[in-house]
Amino acid sequence: MRKKRVLLLSEGFGSGHTQAAYALAVGLRSLDPHIQTRVIELGNFLNPVIGPLIVSAYRRTVTKQPKLLGTLYRRQYKKSLNRFTQLALHRLFYKHTEQVIAQLKPDLIVCTHPVPNAVVARLKRLGLNVPLYTLITDYDAHGTWTSSEVTKYLVSTVEVKNKLTERGTSASRIQVTGIPVHPNFWQTYDRSELQAQFDLKALPTVLIMGGGWGIMYSDDLLSYMTRYRDSVQLIYCVGNNDKVREKMLADPNYQHPNIKVLGFTKEINKLMDLSDLLITKPGGMTCTEGLSKGIPMLFYEPIPGQEEVNCEYFVASGFGEMLESTETIDKWFKIIQEPYTSVQHRMDLMNKRNQQYNPMECSRAVLQLMQ
């Protein structure tokens, strides 16, 4: 019997969309080894020269003009990509998508980014007969995700489902599944063994992350945290931002045995396990990974738009707090130095997580829908 094939399409605008696609793929294969999955960042795959340039331009805009992105996000908030825009995207960048699909012969397509979602939706209008599932990878429902050709929406929360229904999407086409995380984030590790692996001490530990593109060195609050370096261990994850890592390593503030400055790593799940507090930009994927670990979170510099909504959701749900001043740092660095209070708070978050979230729910839902 031919194995079922699932094609997962994403884009490289930030790392969360593609991480969600890989997490769903791994989850599906763990539930049913007879399923074949393929994850593709479609723009980069079809345009290996132009694609990375577009992503780089987007990254510069995020860094230099975040308010512009926020303005565009709000202006288009309730609007799906119109047919002219879909046609332009298809003709300019995605004209070979149909051939890719024809070659791979998927039984199901899952899109974790609005652009490939719009491209596949257009192909379905033109006759493509493959179910299209849309996995919204944030805690908001921007209009660019929506299309009448979508077979099923997989969403993070009831609130996102309600936003879609308010715009006319039938509730029967929406399933609340949560955002999938890699199974590694559902494993627990021995803390002392992790401390030995990463050459860390048995001290209260803070993990500071800047999303898929790393920390911005200029943030004064990140530097302020180094004042606690004699009593609190600090792990700065700068991602692929090698220039920032070099600057931090050359800065006397960060030259201390209790401070680690790491580049790109695939072991964030372990670093979250050995940490008592996560300080991060509120990307949908990072927040969900933190949720899966039950680690308290502080959010800084959300990109205007979806990251602001992500932040609002996790603060309202009690999983995090906005990092607005040095007073917030002082408050939380004091909490994690009080062992009973810190452990009790994390236990409370784990209990809340167990009530609200199951990391395999999205994979199970897709598997059931395929049957």
What does this structure look like?
- This is UDP-N-acetylglucosamine--LPS N-acetylglucosamine transferase.
- There is one protein chain.
- The chain has 371 residues and is of the alpha/beta class.
- It has two domains: 4-180 and 358-370, Glycogen Phosphorylase B (Rossmann fold); 187-337, Rossmann fold.
- The chain is 46% helix and 14% strand.
- It contains 17 helices and twelve strands.
Helices and strands, with pairings:
Blueprint: E1 4-10, H1 16-31, E2 35-41, H2 42-46, H3 50-64, H4 66-75, H5 83-92, H6 97-104, E3 108-111, H7 114-125, E4 132-135, E5 152-155, H8 158-166, E6 174-176, H9 191-197, E7 205-209, H10 220-224, E8 233-237, H11 242-250, E9 259-262, H12 268-273, E10 277-280, H13 284-293, E11 297-299, H14 306-316, E12 320-322, H15 326-335, H16 339-356, H17 361-370
Parallel strand pairs: 1-2, 1-3, 3-4, 4-5, 5-6, 7-8, 7-10, 8-9, 10-11, 11-12
Helix pairs in contact: 1-17, 5-7
What is the CATH architecture assignment of the largest domain?
3-Layer(aba) Sandwich
What is the average of the pLDDT values? 87
Provide the gyration radius in Å.
21 Å
| CATH topology-level name of the largest domain | Rossmann fold
Please estimate the helix content.
40-55%
- Superfamily at the CATH H level of the largest domain? Glycogen Phosphorylase B
Oligomer: single chain
Tell me the strand percentage band. Answer: 5-15%
User: Helix/strand/pairing class, anyone?
Assistant: alpha/beta
CATH class of the largest domain: Alpha Beta
Number of strands: 12
Number of helical stretches of at least 4 residues: 17
Poorly predicted segments = none
Task: Give a short account of the largest sheet.
Answer: 6 strands, parallel
Distance between the termini: 15 Å
Give the strand line-up of the largest sheet.
2-1-3-4-5-6
Structural shape: globular
Number of domains: 2
SSE string: EHEHHHHHEHEEHEHEHEHEHEHEHEHHH
